[in-house]
Amino acid sequence: MTEHADPVFPVLWNDGPPHSTTAPPVRPHRTAPGDFAAAVLALATRYTGRAPAELLTRAGGAGEWTAVAVQDPGPAATLGTRRDALSVPLSGTPVEVALGSLTFRFEPMPDGGWATTVSAGSTAGDDAALGRIAAHVNAFLAAPDELSVGAVDHRTEAERTLFAEVNRTAVALPEPGCLHRQVERVVDAAPERIAVVQGEVRLSYGRLDAVANALAERLGAHGVGPGGRVGVVAARSVDMVVAAYAALKAGASYVPLDPMLPPARQAALHRIGEVDVIVTESGHRLPAAQEGTPVIALDPVTELPATPRRPEVPVRGDDLAYTIFTSGSSGEPKGVLLDHVGRTSMILDLAARIGLTPDDRILAVSSPSFDMTVLDMFAALMTGAAVVMPERGRENDIDHWVDLVAHNDITVWHSVPSTLELFLNAWGDRTGSLRAFLLGGDWIPLGQPQAVWKAFPGAHFVSLGGASEVSVDSTYYTVASVDPSWRSIPYGRPMTNQNAYVLDAFGRPAAVDQVGELYLGGAGVGWGYQSRAATTAEKFQPDPFRGVPGARMYRTGDLARLRRDGELELLGRVDQQVKVGGVRIEVGEIEACLREHTGVGEAVVVAARDAQGRPRSLTAYVVPASPAPDTVDAVARSIREHLAARLPAAMVPARIEVLDALPVNSNGKIARRELEQRAAAVSVPAGTPDDELLTSVGQIWREVLGLDAVPAADESFAGLGGGSLAAIQVSSRLNRRFATDIKVADLLRADTVALVAQVVTARRGERKRPALVRRR
C-alpha cells in the first residue's frame, strides 16, 4: 500500500484495478451542470483550505474534457456566490468532474434524485474511502446557497459519531487534584518504602516527605506561598525531587533551571519564569543575573533538616504547579504555565494503563528542562514506585544507564525514541527487568518496537503524544505489533479527561483521513505563556466541542488525520518548527541568536532529514556581516562558541557553514529546500588518517548510532542522525579508547569520520589522569 501523491484527496492505494463507489441518491439544491462542479470545488476547498486553480468537466460521459478556470472568491463567500462565479460550458447529463486523482460522475435517477459515483484509477486501501468522499460531495450539493463552505458539515453520520466517541473521555477528576497531595497519600500508607535512588542514596517516602516539609517551611519564611515561583537549580538528582516537592507543599510552583544549561540561558529562564526564590544544590555557582534573588542552598540530603509537620497551605487543583520552557520563534524561550489537576489526571490514567505498582522503578533519563521529568518523578511517587536518578556527572552516560538497568531492577523506560535507540545500541545481549517502554516527544521508528521486543521479550510498548502546553502526554497507543502498511506508529487516542481534534482550515472537524491541524483540549490544557498574552490568545483558543464554559484547546501546529479506527496519525508540521532528539525547536530562535553575533549578516537554520523526511539534526548557514579577516573555520568556531554560551546543546546546530550568499528562489525568498538538500553534503580534505584509525572511529559511530555498517570516511555525523546526546557517547568512547580529550563541540565541528580521525590523531595520548578527589 502506498500513499498517492494527490494534493487534494488523501487516499491510500493498493496496486489494484480501477475502483469506483456510488453514494446513496441525494436531492441537490440546484442541478445545473455548474452546480455539480461547484460542489466538487467546495469539497476540495474544505480538504485543502484553498480552491484549486482549475478542474475538468465534461457532459454525457464521453468526449473531451474541458478545463474550467477557478477564481477563489475567498473563505467567507457563500455556496451560491461560488456557484454563480463558476462558468461551466456544459449541457446534458450525466455530468463528470475530474480533480486530482478522482473523477466524480453525477446522473439523474427516475425518482428525481441524483446518484454520485466517485472513481479512481487504482483500488483504495480503505474500501470505504471513496464512499465517504462521495457522501461529502453530496453534503455540498444539498446545502442551501446562503451557507459558506466552512459552515457545511460535510461528514457522514458515522464520522460525526466517531469524532464524539474518540473524545468521550470524561471521568471524575481526582480529589484532591494536587500532585503533592497524591504523594502524601503514599507517604502515609508506606513511609518506609524507597522513593528515590541515586548512587548510594536510598531516600524513603517518609524521609522525602519530612525534608520537603522542612524546606517548604524555609520557603515560607522567605515569603513564598500560593502564587510564588521557586527556581530549582538542580540536575537530575535527589535534590531536584526534594525541591520540586517542597515548592508544591508551600503552595508555590517550581521552575526548573537546569545547571547544565549555559549561564545566559539559565538567566533568561530565571527572568521569564519570574522566580521569587532559588533552591540550589550546595556548591553550585549561580549566574550573575540570579544573584539578587534569595537562595536556599541544600546540604547533602542525609544532612537536611526534617519535620513531620506538613505546611497548612490551601492548594487547589487549578493552582499553578510548574513552568516549563519551549523554544520561541521570537528569539526567546516561552514559559508555559501548568496547573496541578491536568497533570494529576494524566499521570493517574497512565499509571493505571501500564499497571504501575510499588514494585516498579522508573529510570529518569530526561533533562529537568524537559517535561518528561515531571512524569518520571510523579508517576513513581504517586503510585509508591521508585524513581532512579543517574549518578552525578553521569547524567548523559549511556553506558551508565545500561548498568543501572542491568543491576537496579529498572522496570519502566520513558524517553524520546532517539534516546531509546542509543540505549538499545549499547544494551547488547544483556538481560534486564524492563517491562514497559513509554515513547513520546518525536517520531517513533517503525522498527523500534521489534528492537525492544528482541531485547526485552513481551515488553509493553506505548506510543505517547502531546505538547508541553497541555500535558506531558495527551494521547496513548499500545503497540501490540507493527502493521506493514503503517507509514508511522499511530499517535493514539486521547487519554482520560483529554480531547484531540483534527480541524480543517475552517476550524471545523475534518472528515476521516482528511488532513487537518491537531488541537488538544480537556483538563490538561495549560494556562498559557508567561507574559505573552498575544501568543497565548493565538495558540490557546476557545473549545467549541467540549461543552464546558470557558474550556480552551491548544493549537499544536501538527498536521494529522483521524483514521477510521479512531486512531490519530501525525503527518508533519504546518510551520518551521522541528523536533530533533525529541526537543521542540523553533529555528527562528536559533536564527535570532545567530544574528546577535557581530560577525553574522544573514543566517538560516534548516533540518537535515532522514529518508522519511523527518528531522535528524540541524545545520546553520551564515553569511558574514562583512568580509571576514579570519578563515572560514575560525568564523564557524566563533559562531559555535557564541551559540553554545546562550542555547541548550540540543539547539546548537550540528554543522555551521559559512556562505558568500544564501540561495534564493524565483520569488526572491531564501531557498530553504535547497539548503535542506545541501545540509548533509560535506567535503573531506586530503591527508586523511590511516585506514585502521578510520575504521576504529567509524566502528564507534556504528555502535552509538545503530548503523548497519561502518560509515565511509566522508560520511557526516549530522547526516547519519547524530545529535548532541549521541555526540556525548561518541566523544566519551573516543577518549577512553585513544586517551584523548575530545569535547562534544570538537566532534560536531569536525563532523565526518575522516575529520574526527584527524582530531584523534592530533590529540592521541594527551589525556591526563584526573586528580583523586574526596567523595562526600
Map the helices and strands.
Blueprint: E1 2-3, E2 12-14, E3 19-26, H1 33-48, E4 54-59, E5 66-69, H2 79-85, E6 95-99, E7 102-108, E8 114-120, E9 123-124, H3 129-142, H4 157-166, H5 179-189, E10 194-198, E11 201-204, H6 205-221, E12 229-233, H7 238-249, E13 253-256, H8 263-272, E14 277-281, E15 295-298, E16 320-326, E17 334-339, H9 340-354, E18 361-363, H10 372-381, E19 386-389, H11 398-407, E20 412-415, H12 417-427, E21 436-439, H13 448-455, E22 460-467, E23 471-479, E24 493-494, E25 498-503, E26 516-522, E27 528-529, H14 533-539, E28 540-542, E29 552-562, E30 568-573, E31 577-580, E32 583-586, H15 587-595, E33 600-609, E34 615-624, H16 632-644, E35 655-658, H17 672-678, H18 691-705, H19 724-738, H20 744-750, H21 753-763
